[in-house]
Amino acid sequence: MTETSLRSYDPRTGQAFGASIPVTPEDEGDRIVLRAAAAGEGWAAAPHTERGRALRAIADAIDADTQTLVGVADAETALGVPRLSGEVARTTGQLRMFADFVSQHRHLDMIIDEGEPGSARPDVRRMLIPIGPVAVYAASNFPFAFSTLGGDTASALAAGCPVVVKAHEAHPATTAATLAVARAALRDAGFDPDVLNAVYGFESGKQLIQHAAVKAAGFTGSLAGGRALFNLATQRPAPIPFFGEFGSVNPVIVLPGAAADNAAGIADGYAQSLTLGTGQFCTNPGLMFIPEGGALISEIERAISASAGGPMLTDRMRQAYGSNMHDREREGVYTVATGTAQAGAWSVTPRVWTASLQDFAAGHERLASEVFGPAGLIVGYPDVDALHAVLSGGVLEGTGVLEGSLTATIHAVEADYPAAARLLPLLRARAGRLIFNGWPTGVAVVWAMHHGGPWPATNSAAHTSVGVRAIDRWLVPVAFQNWPEDLLPAELRRGNPLEVPRISQS
């Protein structure tokens, strides 16, 4: 049966609530994209400082309405008011970060080669320009920071691109409420609100990425869903760039000195990271390597046994988690500890298993796969030589026991530094962010952040969805050769009237 509307569900009770939101019909989806493309012409032509001003206005409006928006999101996601309030702050913070970046013209990557008068060497002036309308696919687990106004949307708007968001079915009311605030702020700032809009429903997402006016897409979600959209993007008559983040296992390696010196602290940190947000993070530490023997495994048992689960975002995710639990038990791993259950219709229980390094190497295709939720695998290794041998297998050929991840972590004390240095090249080839004596959950929204990684963490390891360089996905270079001064964009003119940062070669 074709869906006609989306309902909001409370993960704590499993019950629907509130008004339904109509699924976007195909003809209306077409009009939304075309209106976005038309509005995008003025948005792209606006001075960068004016776009920055509009992004700050959106951030201010969201901050002013935080309490209402968080209330809607908590009812739909059960992520809790403290977590969601922090996520709103992260969302508005990254809007302001991009506002500052573009207001300083830092995104243009200007290169000026003045050539040589009277010679065959031309005058060439290169800059980046907006790619055009962008489709953004909202994530389930971050109703603010990776959804309607998340990093994909914020960076695309900052680049000068209009955005059409495909709302996630886990929180349609949150999307609608956030969108209303942002569109009103755009209107008040003097811009066409159709620079930002949304569509609802599964079919609308397929239609969106195939629309001729859409020039690029960003996605955060499952590998299966992202791969399907990637295929649609590349099979169009005119293929478009697709930037997908698909999750990862985020391997953590605890070296012998760290395990001996800080077993309790590492165990507590692991349990907190693994169960944060009911494990519904793309940076969840799903795979950890620890020395065999010693106190660390018993400390992990203690910490996990004291942990509590919580509700998953959707009933489908809850069922998938249960299915993964059943599959793992059949794969010959041993349960280290199980946390406690929490009241709630879609609640799940934390669980950690263990396997030997030999068994992991033999069954890595199954055991190294992501489990979305508060579950992890502990692999015991006899010594660093054995661990290095297993992890290094197939690296040069692009294969091996570890696939691409968003992050990789090492816990070490000074005595472990030689081993850490030996393992670092292996991890550097497998992850986009390398962490020392920390935990992967919690991605800092700072200019230098790289949130990406090799396949299957993403389909484009050169790009990030967090940090100022996330804007690069939505910009394309154009070189102007021998154009007269009066016809050049202001940013490229001689004398640099806008005082734009640029590289000059004369």
- In whole angstroms, how far apart are the ends? 65 Å
**Which residues sit in consecutive blocks of at least 5 with pLDDT less than 50?**
none
How many separate helices?
A: 17
Please tell me the CATH architecture of the largest domain by its name.
Answer: 3-Layer(aba) Sandwich
Strand order of the largest sheet: 13-15-16-11-10-17-18
Silhouette = globular
Q: CATH class of the largest domain, anyone?
A: Alpha Beta
Question: Any key phrases for this structure?
Answer:
single chain, 506 residues, alpha/beta, Aldehyde Dehydrogenase, Chain A, domain 1, seven-stranded mixed β-sheet, five-stranded parallel β-sheet, 39% helix
How is this structure best described in words?
The protein is an alpha/beta fold and 506 residues long. It folds into 2 domains: 24-246 and 462-492, Aldehyde Dehydrogenase, Chain A, domain 1; 252-436, 3-Layer(aba) Sandwich (Aldehyde Dehydrogenase, Chain A, domain 2), CATH 3.40.309.10. The chain has 17 helices and 20 strands. The protein has helices spanning 26-45, 48-64, 66-77, 81-103, 144-148, 151-159, 172-188, 202-210, 223-234, 256-261, 263-275, 296-305, 315-329, 357-362, 364-367, 384-392, 417-428; strands spanning 5-10, 15-22, 110-113, 124-130, 134-137, 163-166, 196-199, 216-220, 242-245, 252-254, 287-291, 310-311, 334-338, 347-348, 351-356, 375-381, 405-411, 431-436, 475-481, 502-505. It has a 7-stranded mixed β-sheet with strand order 13-15-16-11-10-17-18, with helices on both faces. A 5-stranded parallel β-sheet has the order 7-6-5-8-9, sandwiched between helices. The model has no long low-confidence stretch (mean pLDDT 94).
